[in-house]
Design a protein that fits this description.
By secondary structure, the protein is α+β, with helices and mostly antiparallel strands. The protein has a domain of about 100 residues: OB fold (Dihydrolipoamide Acetyltransferase, E2P) (Beta Barrel), CATH 2.40.50. It is about 15% helix and about 35% strand. The protein is built from 3 helices and 8 strands, in the order ααββββββββα. The strands form 2 sheets. A 5-stranded mixed β-barrel has the order 1-2-3-7-4. The protein has a two-stranded antiparallel sheet with strand order 5-6. β5 and β6 form a beta hairpin. The protein is elongated, with a radius of gyration of 25 Å. The termini are far apart.
């Protein structure tokens, strides 16, 4: 027999050692272990804070359905990574409580998904605004609390 793998009844130990050595050389095994949070701006956490860079709105219309209207968006620069992401502003009139250079808290909408009918160029909106300068956006829209002025 030529060179190759060990064969026979007593070759288990040698095959096990050989498998350990060559395990990381296989491409699909390396892919499994690579961290997937590298591409994620939130870097494996549920919430992240950032500063509002600009406000805007996108008009959306879906064919064969009557769901269309303007979706309010803000561009936020994250404090942790410095990346700029688009975030959706929920609630009626929620955009009026957000000014430029405000500190906001973002969270993911759904794991790995984007907001249904919003498509902005190549990217999509995967985050939404929860708090504005330390006060809940929901409480602001219900006028239960006032926004902090600094």
């Amino acid at each position: 027999m030529g060179k190759g793998k060990a064969r026979g009844l007593n070759a288990a130990r040698k095959l096990k050692i050989l498998r350990k050595k060559t395990y990381w050389k296989q491409k699909n095994e390396r892919k499994k272990v690579q961290p997937h949070y590298i591409a994620d701006p939130l870097t494996n956490s549920g919430f992240v804070s950032g500063i509002v860079v600009e406000k805007g709105a996108v008009f959306t219309k879906i064919r064969r359905r009557s769901t269309y209207g303007t979706r309010r968006l803000v561009k936020v620069q994250l404090m942790r990574t410095g990346q700029r992401v688009l975030a959706f502003v929920p609630f009626d009139g929620g955009i009026h409580y957000i000014d430029e250079s405000d500190l906001v808290l973002l969270c993911k909408v759904r794991k790995g998904k984007n907001i249904g009918d919003i498509d902005v160029g190549a990217g999509s909106v995967k985050y939404k605004v929860i708090k504005v300068s330390g006060v809940s956006l929901y409480a602001l829209t219900l006028e239960k609390k006032d926004k902090l002025r600094r």
